[in-house]
């Protein structure tokens, strides 16, 4: 498994760049991954990241629809606008949780 | 604190990879739905939505009974066929499958199952696909044949097009077509 250095810490990631240990996640890690994904994180982005981390910690199976229906975004459209070209995957990567295994 | 100076940064490790080196990835998908049963419509919708979720340029073309999925008063009442569908009720005699109410019951059960798995009704599914940048197109010939007009179709439908125009949606080397 590759390791990368972010803000002086060693972070374990898989071949696709997802964190393999979500405990190693910090806001600096999120900023670094978001930069590579071409996303500038606004307050709204942080809300989504926090929501995803909470949901993951609770063991929820995340889907685009579930995020769209949550209070954290107004609609699925807003989720796509925040994280273009694959919101669930990109947001999960930035949130330091595993790649979602959902088909919807 | 461990020494991380020798480790590659995240950008060094994944920055270039994301944009280069993956040029054989699927770029564009055209999903054609030609049938009006629940199982066929959902197969098409799930694949189209899945492509949108991956950031793939996605188009849908609805023809013949597939038009039901984009027809306002039909899209959320598609049926799960019980007759001529041996995979659905393996141990039930075909004649029973045709009794009044059996198809309605099977449809209702299937809807419940789908909701459990966060699979939305057809109308909401189409909204999700369009929200992600996918486009919906009706078949000109089929719309005419069924005596429909643009007002009968849901607002998310971009236009009603010919087969020639549909094929243009699937142009390019890294394009694929799925026919349901």
Please characterize this protein's 3D structure:
The complex is a heterodimer of chains A (104) and B (180). In chain A, helix 1 (27-36) runs antiparallel to helix 5. Chain A has helices spanning 27-36, 43-57, 64-69, 76-82, 87-95; strands spanning 3-6, 9-12. Chain A is built from five helices and two strands, in the order ββααααα. The model of chain A has no long low-confidence stretch (mean pLDDT 93). Chain A has a two-stranded antiparallel sheet. Chain B is of the alpha/beta class and 180 residues long. Chain B contains seven helices and five strands, in the order αβαβαααβαβαβ. Chain B has a five-stranded parallel beta sheet with strand order 4-3-2-1-5. In chain B, helix 2 packs parallel to helix 5 (122-131). The N and C termini of chain B lie far apart (57 Å).
Attribute tags:
heterodimer; A: 104 residues; mainly alpha; two-stranded antiparallel ribbon; 45% helix; globular; B: 180 residues; alpha/beta; five-stranded parallel beta sheet; 7 helices; 5 strands; 37% helix
Provide the fold topology.
The complex is a heterodimer of chains A (104) and B (180).
Chain A: E1 3-6, E2 9-12, H1 27-36, H2 43-57, H3 64-69, H4 76-82, H5 87-95
Antiparallel strand pairs in A: 1-2
Helix pairs in contact in A: 1-5, 2-5
Chain B: H1 10-19, E1 28-33, H2 38-53, E2 57-62, H3 94-97, H4 102-116, H5 122-131, E3 135-139, H6 140-145, E4 157-161, H7 163-168, E5 175-179
Parallel strand pairs in B: 1-2, 1-5, 2-3, 3-4
What's the quick description here?
With 104 residues, chain A is mostly helical.
* Beta-strand content estimate of chain A: 5-15%
Strand order of the largest sheet of chain B: 4-3-2-1-5
Greatest interface: A-B, 36 and 30 residues
Rg of chain B over CA atoms, rounded to whole Å, is 21 Å
Average of pLDDT of chain B: 91
How many strand segments of chain A?
A: 2
Shape of chain B: globular
Instruction: Supply the number of helical segments of chain A.
Output: 5
Summed over residues and divided by their number, the pLDDT of chain A gives a mean of 93
Q: What is the subunit arrangement here? A: heterodimer
Could you spell the SSE succession of chain B in H and E letters?
HEHEHHHEHEHE
The coarse overall form of chain A would be globular
Low-confidence stretches of chain A: none
Low-confidence sequence ranges of chain B? none
Class of secondary structure makeup of chain B = alpha/beta
Distance between termini of chain A?
28 Å
What's the tally of helices of chain B? 7
Main pleated sheet of chain A: 2 strands, antiparallel
How much of the polypeptide of chain B forms β-strand, as a percent range?
15-25%
Helix proportion of residues of chain A, in percent?
A: 40-55%
């Amino acid at each position: 498994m590759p390791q990368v250095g972010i803000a002086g810490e060693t972070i374990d990631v898989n071949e696709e760049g997802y964190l393999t240990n979500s405990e190693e996640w910090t806001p600096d890690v999120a900023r670094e991954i978001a930069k590579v994904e071409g996303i500038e994180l606004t307050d709204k982005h942080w809300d989504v990241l926090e929501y995803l981390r909470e949901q993951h910690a609770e063991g929820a199976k995340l889907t685009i629809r579930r995020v769209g229906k949550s209070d954290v975004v107004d609609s699925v459209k807003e989720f796509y606008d925040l994280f273009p070209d694959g919101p669930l995957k990109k947001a999960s990567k930035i949130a330091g949780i595993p790649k979602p295994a959902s088909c919807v | 604190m461990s020494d991380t100076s020798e480790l590659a940064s995240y950008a060094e490790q994944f920055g270039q990879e994301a944009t280069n080196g993956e040029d054989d990835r699927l770029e564009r998908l055209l999903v054609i739905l030609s049938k009006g049963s629940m199982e066929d419509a959902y197969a098409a919708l799930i694949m189209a939505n899945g492509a949108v979720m991956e950031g793939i340029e996605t188009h849908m073309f609805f023809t013949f009974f597939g038009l039901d999925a984009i027809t306002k008063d039909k899209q959320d009442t598609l049926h799960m066929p019980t007759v001529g569908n041996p995979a659905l009720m393996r141990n039930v005699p075909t004649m029973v499958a045709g009794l009044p109410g059996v198809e309605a019951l099977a449809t209702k059960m299937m809807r419940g199952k789908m909701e459990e798995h966060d699979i939305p009704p057809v109308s909401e599914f189409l909204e999700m696909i369009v929200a992600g940048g996918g486009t919906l197109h009706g078949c000109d010939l089929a719309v005419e044949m069924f005596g429909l007009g643009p007002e009968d179709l849901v607002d998310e439908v971009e236009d009603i097009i010919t087969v020639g125009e549909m094929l243009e949606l699937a142009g390019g080397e890294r394009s694929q077509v799925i026919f349901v």
